[in-house]
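Suppose you are handed only two things: the residues of a chain and a line of SMILES describing flavin mononucleotide. What would the bound structure be? This form records exactly that question and the answer produced for it, so the two can be stored side by side and reused later without any lookup.

QUESTION INPUTS
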Amino acid sequence: MRNDSHLPQALQGLRLPLVASPMFILSGPELVVAQCKAGIVGSFPALNAREAEGEPPLLDAWLTQIAEALDKHNQENPDQPAAPFAVNQIVHRSNSRLNRDLEICVKHKVPIWITSLGAREEVNEAAHSCGGIVLHDIINNRFAHKAIEKGADGLIAVAAGAGGHAGPQSPFALIREIREWFDGPLLLSGALATGEGLLAARAMGADLGYMGSAFIATREANAVPGYKDMIVSGGADDIVTSSLFTGVSGNYLRPSIEAAGLDPDNLPSADASSMNFGDGSSKPKAWKEIWGAGQGIGAVKQIAGAAELVDRIEAEYLAAGARMAAEFAR
Ligand SMILES: Cc1cc2nc3c(=O)[nH]c(=O)nc-3n(C[C@H](O)[C@H](O)[C@H](O)COP(=O)(O)O)c2cc1C
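ANSWER OUTPUT
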């Protein structure tokens, strides 16, 4: 039995100690509901819910849709209740929707809030005001300290090889340094795409894994077929790190950079001051088809349903655990 009694209630009793990370454009209600029904925490960036001018907030509608779908599942499957869901807030100062989105999330009593790109006390207070917990994503120990000082409940260590805005540090170094002073909820991300990797994250001292790119090649992900195919055919050699597209260092699929007519081996760098989340993404429209992914995609061999992916990760996790248990029993 996994002992998770030290974790906040929202993170207890999951089928697997795993949170599916929020991904710009790709994660919406369909993917989140499938992840939660499969027993892991599903999540989406609030900025993915974008209504047309003059229409009511789509975030409000999405949160109602997710809550209703999960309630229905729980009534029909009392023995296998859905995991709770999380909403990601980009707290960067250029996100002009932040206050409105916070109010909507408080109204819906969102249970888990994932914050990225800057820790802000008022966001943590908003989450706590409705009984939610905040997990803040960081790429080094200094930012980890800052996040906890500002009132986050837990940390997501984004290590080298992660999709999106990856950190440069080894997961071994990062987890060890954080665990020297922090015994609260700690998640690890960065190229995690297997059950063996998840077990390794737990052995290192993380409470849960945090996995994104593997879910791009699921049927429920909002990605064009070419993107999903590129995840299936790609591996770590196909991942290029560049700051050009958003102003911060991120990981992208090499063939998508080539398809846009750029040379992946000679990309100029960009300044962090060019980051702007005013319209949802900090990536200019011209680079819409430059696709993000982490180094773990070599483990993704097919496009599958999110539930099938979770089944695969669970089988690997249990087999790896049994192998280790047998080794230590000797
Ligand atoms: C295409 C893509 C888009 C992402 N968008 C976001 C985002 O909007 N907000 C966020 O907090 N993280 C975002 N991430 C980062 C993930 O939250 C997470 O750190 C990452 O997926 C973990 O690494 P992995 O992809 O190797 O599993 C994104 C990642 C990818 C691959």
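WHAT STANDS OUT: The pocket of flavin mononucleotide is lined by residues 21-24, 26, 45, 88, 116, 137, 158, 162-164, 189-192, 210-213, 292-294, 296 (CB under 6 Å). DSSP finds ten helices and ten strands in the chain.
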